Amino acid sequence: MDAFSPIPALAGGLLIGLASAVLWLGNGRIAGISGIFGQLLPPAQTVVWRLVFLVAMVLGTLATAWLIPGLGIGGPGGAPAQLVSPPSALGIPTIVWLAIAGLLTGVGTKIGNGCTSGHGVCGLARLSKRSFVAVGVFFAVAIITVAVTGIV
Amino acid sequence: MSTLRLPYLATAAVSGALFGAGLYVSQMVDPLKVLRFLDFTAIPSGGWDPSLAFVIAPAILVMFIAVRLGRTRSAPLFNGQFHEPEFKKIDAPLVLGAALFGMGWGMSGICPGPAISLIAFWPNDLLVFLVALFAGSYAGAYVIPSGEKKRLAMAR
Prior knowledge:
The structure holds two protein chains of two kinds. In chain A, about 65% of the residues lie in helices and about 0% in strands. By secondary structure, chain A is mostly helical. The interface between A and B is large, with 119 and 129 residues.
């Protein structure tokens, strides 16, 4: 039974909101990670800022883990980061499970034009109808997927 | 090109760093923590972790204020225009895409932000997920031609 952590959750959420606000008011861009990441190859014309954003995101994660150690996984005081293992009853190798999950996430966020950040944070904040639909669908399907696979 | 100027790139860097910090502080980089939110079957037994809702709500609130602020201005600080999606129609690709993403998210507990941020901690097999994510994203652009067109329009 792992712990509900409202204070770090609220603090982290404020940081994510601030990140989105800075990118919007500074550059007029939506901080949707699947969008930023999904337009790195040609014919994209704006590769540099996307790479800068993503590298800074990884460094931000790393630096915070050192500055505020032990919040959970990662960093010097934290538990080692681990991806999930597939439900053992299915007998699927972990890398196959993760590859399928990654493909679904990649295809889905591309054709659905967004993920948890682009639709979930920025889209809902813009009161976009498309984002309300997308968020409803991906949360519902994710909740059903977890229930059906019994992965936790 | 304005997107190569220092203030523009510095803004992208500050935003990215804040985003990564938020994902660590909230522990949304932990796939298990995300899955414990998505596991509604644990609600009756009291084992449900509602943290994710406490992350996304303040994030939306801050961004909501920023969007309101932005609407009082004709352009952002370091660019000529706000790149607000112009496509408003609720269509099949939106719903199908969200459903496929929901499946992937429920299988792994990581969405694109945490997946990339986890490079900081490099867990086993992360590379498998990232390569698949990248491949899926590019495959998707060819499966749905309208996505490609919109992508081109937005990449400007």
